[in-house]
Amino acid sequence: MLKSIQYTGKMLVLKAVSVVLLLMFFSAAEAGVTIKVLILDDVFQRIPGRDEKLERMGKLKGDLLVNGIRYPGNIEVWQGEGGLYLINELPFEEYISNVVSAEVGADWDMEALKVQAVISRTYALNQKSRNNNNYDITSSVLHQVYKGSNENARISYAVLNTEGEVLTYDGKLIEAFYHSTSGGLTELPEEVFGKSYPYLKSVSGSCETSPYWIWERRIPAEEIGKLLNITGVTELRIVSYTSTRRVSAVDITHSSGTLTVKATELRKQLGWNRLPSTSFSVSRDGNTIVFDGKGYGHGVGLCQWSALEMARSGMNYRDILSYFYPGTTLRIYENR
Q: Who wins on pLDDT, 125 or 43?
């Protein structure tokens, strides 16, 4: 929790127990379209509640340093009931370059980088178009990863060569869901988000080169109980699957009975990294629950590692996008 704020002429210092944030002021030219990103990291973890009253403490032009990460552009500091919130406003296409840098490797094939630029741009504009908050999008996996300024010539080239390009269906921006590793078959959106889309089908993909192609996670039964607010966990049993053979729900036997939990909710409670996907089998080794699985992410839409393999095989970014989002049209967004 931040304890104090000090302003000393050219520098605003926000002091905390474990972090010091520096706002370095400089003049910067305003760009056309901008985006407001709520910073979420190890220190700033909360999203403002729907009814939480916020008071803006100021809007500053400069660099924000958080745990060694530099966030360029304008910085808004808001005070709420839960503490401070930091919102980074920066030019939209600059944000897209930084997202591509955070989401995939700079050494990836150029066509795969172009794919990521288009879907990140589409996803962000969709979020921005329905924004009812003081920010458009968060910097975490709740939306898409943004880790501040991370300039790279190859990524800048990919973003520039797709500048303004977005995916549409019937003239509207699509829900450009994507994930890291499908495990061989992408998931249907209704299984995860409770809604179907005509351009989001289950398709196959080769992603064996992903570090998350096969994985194992060993989690103490007691820890699972604490995260789910139950005690005496003795067994986890899969009770249903989705049409793509991902786990749909599990029964958890504990001291007071049996709790049925959706696999997507179990993954959320255990942590996205702790349980990389819902494609797993489960067993018990003493007091430890063992998850053997494959893939990483919710599985809906484009699989990044499959897109990389397609690019390496010679496919261009337009064809890759058409494969994962059939029936969509590539267009230039307006008001750039």
A: 125
